[in-house]
Amino acid sequence: MSLLEDLLENNEQWAADLLKEDPSFFAHLAEQQSPEYLWIGCSDSRVPANQLLGLMPGDVFVHRNIANLVIHTDLNCMSVIKYAVDVLKVKHIIVTGHYDCGGINAAMQKQSFELIDGWLRNIKDIYVNHLDHFNESMTEKEKLDYLTELNVIEQVKNVCHTTCVQQAWGKGQELTIHGLIYSVKNGRLKDLKVNFNNIDNINDLYHIS
Ligand code: CO
Predict the structure, then answer these.
(1) What are the pLDDT digits (tens) for 45-100?
(2) Which positions are annotated as active-site residues?
């Protein structure tokens, strides 16, 4: 049997199991989606948004890329945020990094990854801009873990700085941006407690009216 046949069989069984639980499950979802959450996470296969949050199809809008970056010139990510905030009116945007991230590890190396170098440079910039947070007594693993956390905090800020989030807050829309870290070693999420739900803690220069 081919691999694709295996996958299609898995899918048939999965859909049948859901219908056994709730015969109207797909009919109901087909009418609309109204997720409360936008997840911005890493593409890493070990960090699947729905499963680790215990959420069903329809519950979370998802954007994933290497090392969960939010780059203002990334039309893909900006479009996802815009749609999630303006149309779906999600109440929470959750930026989630994860320890043992291949993207973070690669960014801390000097070797070229060719096409990916420009993407990884965003992470190098975060390290270099926060050099004073790192010291010689830290192990390589500690440095990587800390950079992983700093990266999430920077991406949370990048979400807050977008025109669309600024405008949503300006209109009084309920919207909180969060930063989490996932451990692929134990399956647990940790809250970095960098929550923003208004423009008060955002530098004036980013305010868009
Ligand atoms: Co990763």
Answers:
(1) 999 999 999 999 999 999 999 999 999 999 999 999 999 999 999 999 999 999 99
(2) 42, 44, 46, 98, 101
Cβ neighbours, 10 Å, residue 159: 23
> From the CA of 10, how far away is ligand 1's center (Å)?
26
- Could you give the CA distance from residue 82 to residue 62 in angstroms, rounded to a whole number? 13
Long-range contacts of 192-199 (CB under 8 A, 24+ apart): 192/149, 192/152, 192/153, 194/152, 194/153, 194/156, 196/156, 196/160, 197/169, 198/169, 199/166, 199/169, 199/170
In the reported structure, the alpha carbon of residue 165 is separated from the centroid of ligand 1 by a whole-number distance in angstroms of 25
Strands (E), 43-170: 60-65, 92-98
pTM above 0.85, yes or no: yes
- What is the per-residue pLDDT across 173-186, written as a single tens digit (0 to 9) for each? 999 999 999 999 99
Q: How far is the CA of 27 from the centre of ligand 1 (A)?
A: 34
* Residue whose structure tokens are 């149309």: 87
Distance between CA atoms of residues 192 and 10, nearest Å: 36
How close is the Cα of 42 to the center of ligand 1, in Å?
5
Residue 68 CA to residue 103 CA, distance in Å, equals 9
**Alpha-carbon gap, residue 104 to 47, rounded angstroms:** 15
Domain annotation for the chain: domains and CATH numbers = 1-31 (no CATH), 32-206 (3.40.1050.10)
